[in-house]
Amino acid sequence: MKKTYKIEVDCANCANKMEDAARNTAGVKEVTVNFMTQKMIVDFNEGTDLAAVMKNVLSACKKVEDDCEIYL
Amino acid sequence: MTKKQKKMLIRILIAAALMLILRFVPLPLSGIPMFLLWLVPYFIIGYDILRKAWKGILNRQVFDENFLMAVATLGALAIGLLKTGDYDEAVAVMLFYQIGELFQSYAVGKSRRNISELMDIRPDYANVEQDGELVRVDPDEVEIGTVITVKPGEKIPIDGIVESGESSLNTSALTGESVPRDVRPGDAVISGCINMSGLLLIRTTKVFGESTVSKVLDLVENASSRKSRSENFIARFARYYTPIVVFSAAALALLPPLVRLVIGQSADWGDWIYRALTFLVISCPCALVISIPLSFFAGIGGAGKAGILIKGSNYLEALANTGTVVFDKTGTLTMGVFDVVDIHHSELDRETMLEYAALAESASSHPIAVSIRKAWGRPIDLSRVSKVEEIGGNGVIVEIDGKRVAAGNSRLMIRLGITPIECHSAGTIVHMAIGQEYAGHIVISDVIKPDAAEAIAALKAAGVRSTVMLTGDGPSAAAQVAEALKIDRVHSELLPADKVEKVEELLSAKKSGETLAFVGDGINDAPVLSRADLGIAMGAMGSDAAIEAADVVLMDDDPLKVSKAIRIARKCMGIVRENIVFALGIKLACLVLGALGIANMWLAVFADVGVMILAVLNAIRALFVQKL
């Protein structure tokens, strides 16, 4: 189950860090952060609660880059 | 500029002005009061960095650039307070760092907009007639089978078929091709083209989301999400680079003074700590991390403008390493339409021969039959034809005006006890017999595209080592085409299934590190397209299957675009390599100079920001592909 989210992040390295942080969140199978188009494409594990997982992804991302935003 | 960027610009200007005043206006102050005065511009320009650094520490993200900038500048302030009385370095480092960040965000935003504008093919509305009036509606709301009106100057919003009206279409936004295409009722048209002359009524055949324009936009927007090896390399590199530099800085601050103490010299703590702080300023991998994806993004955007859709940065990379190009002949090097080219050994005149052939083949929808009927070019009187007998794989036997006429290959002739005259021309041969007499044969051949030979030569010039042609034609016809086009190798008499096998054979034989690209027309070759290292589908306007299966999609059917795509990819990869070498080289040089005490913080921050600006500007160069 793949979903695309609009994000806001200022620096390219922070985008890489967000990608790492999101990938290590439970329920996320694979994730790509596209800095140029400001998008996060998340591939979820089967049968996960998307809203709950994305909440964790957001807080994990906020931890590595305070200035980022994910529009859920 | 966005609000955020404007705010930053104002902060930069104020801090710079304050700094100049403090530096050049002689004030009767020194010591602590002077220090406090210098803190004003320092906090104006750097408060957000300090705040982020503090949050980073709380979140255990020590190695982020905010933390490093904070440590470097606070360290410089401390040295100023305790030793030198100079505080300008700390403020300058912060200032230039922020200028660099501002430039980066501005340049990236600008190029993002530029590239989206290049691909500005998204239609905003569709005209639908409701209660006798034309109403503009959202293309998303138009159902399949609705008749939409497209006025001159408007974009066709949804794929469909022309119901009425004649016009010429500008397809350049999709194909990069500037010659307009004429359409008349019955023609299929695709969304994204601009209607240039007449009013068109179009019956839609797809919903907006499935239309060409939506697919193309989706593809281009998501292309940079498939990351290349270079991008992954840089991301991994950035992960290690910063910690390594930080630990080296710590070592530089501690080890030399300790060694000096042991061998009985003065420790010079201040000097070595200063050198270590210089290290920290160079520790941000920004230039690399931003310029590499930006180069790919620009390259993909530029290619899209030229009618070449590259589905991901990884494919752009693969394209640049193309060593072998395999063509599926029909539809790529040839038009994919058959034409009667000659008639041999016939006692009858050309017209009569074609008339008989057209009548004989009147019931068939085979491309060969279609081409014969087209060559005859007149309406067919079906009442003259009777007793149609199709012999699968051989041909057809019919009665025309009461005479038995056979049309087919040499096996059909032999079956009927007639000796055919073998033909030495390339192409498909249709032998004809009228009654029991051999009547000659018709040579039908696929027409080679006018640009095909040039395209092969261009591939060679672009550095492709070998070109291969796969075809279902017989060996002599295949060899003739290959010779005309100067193709290195030919494999003939292949059934569609054999093509996958052949490509696998070629894949195992190629040099490692090189890409094998397969070029097909998107019809029936989806398995081969996905099996090759790189599948290139040609003439894919409106063909969903090809867009799905291929890695690179050429919007029109010009074979020259293959070499153009390779050149675009090479240019882009060249820029990527330049940026990696350039940025790493300068950083390394600054690190060495900093460690030796030759480079001060000014130089370090100039190098850091300067490299980033140059790398970003260089990356944007990848966008300009028109002249390639």
Descriptive terms for the model:
heterodimer, A: 72 residues, alpha+beta, Alpha-Beta Plaits, 4-stranded antiparallel β-sheet, 2 helices, 4 strands, globular, B: alpha+beta, 4 domains, 6-stranded antiparallel β-sheet, 51% helix
Descriptive overview:
The complex is a heterodimer of chains A (72) and B (628). Chain A is of the alpha+beta class and 72 residues long. Chain A is globular. Chain A has 2 helices and 4 strands, in the order E-H-E-E-H-E. In chain A, strand 2 (28-34) and strand 3 (39-44) form a beta hairpin. Chain A has a single domain, classed as 2-Layer Sandwich (Alpha-Beta Plaits). In chain B, the strands form 4 sheets. A 7-stranded mixed sheet of chain B has the order 10-22-21-20-11-18-19, sandwiched between helices. In chain B, strands 2-1-3-9-4-7 form a 6-stranded antiparallel sheet, with no helix packed on it. In chain B, strands 12-17-16-15-14-13 form a 6-stranded antiparallel sheet. Chain B is elongated and about 120 Å long. The model of chain B has no long low-confidence stretch (mean pLDDT 85). Chains A and B meet through helix 1 of A and helix 2, helix 4, helix 7 and helix 9 of B.
What would a concise description of this structure say?
The complex is a heterodimer of chains A (72) and B (628). By secondary structure, chain A is α+β, with helices and mostly antiparallel strands.
* Protein structure class of chain A: alpha+beta
- CATH C-level name of chain A: Alpha Beta
Radius of gyration of chain B (CA) equals 35 Å
Number of domains of chain A: 1
In CATH terms, what is the fold-level topology of chain A?
Alpha-Beta Plaits
Number of strands of chain B: 22
